[in-house]
Amino acid sequence: MGPITQELYKQIKGWRIYSVIAPSVFCAGAAFLYLHYGATFQNIFFTGLIILAFSCITWWHWSLSTMVTMLAIMKDTDDHFKEVGEKLEQLRIQNGGKPQLFVVKDLDTDK
User: Fold this and answer.
1) What SS3 class is residue 68?
2) Three-state DSSP class for residue 39
3) Which site among 4, 25, 46, 110 is 20 to 30 Å from 55 CA-CA?
4) Number of H helices and number of E strands within the chain?
5) pTM value surpassing 0.70
6) CA angle at 55 for the pair 67 and 32, rounded to the nearest 5°
7) Exposure pattern of 89-103 as b/e (b: 16+ CB <10 Å)?
8) How far from the centroid of its chain's Cα atoms is residue 35's Cα?
9) Residue range 62-70: mean pLDDT, rounded
10) pLDDT tier at 70 (50, 70, 90 boundaries)?
11) Quick one: pLDDT at residue 108?
12) Where in the chain are the domains?
């Protein structure tokens, strides 16, 4: 993996861990507050909505940033293939055009 791919992999791995840990921690914290301090369901519910909205907005912007990064990688790849194609064309011209292809041995008559 290249450095950009490794960085994206680490970020994706972080989001996967967050998607498991955040709801668990929230539920445990909400249960603790509800049972020990008598927090109302309404407060817990709205706190959860705020955390959910913040997570969704953050994830959305991270996704857009990741798409822009992937487009940049694709552009670099396209530029590289264009450069390779031009160099192959130069080699073809340098070697006198298209190669002369011929059959060395006729396979259909060999029995």
Assistant:
1) helix
2) coil
3) 4
4) 2, 0
5) no
6) 155
7) eeeeeeeeeeeeeee
8) 42
9) 91
10) confident
11) 66
12) 3-94
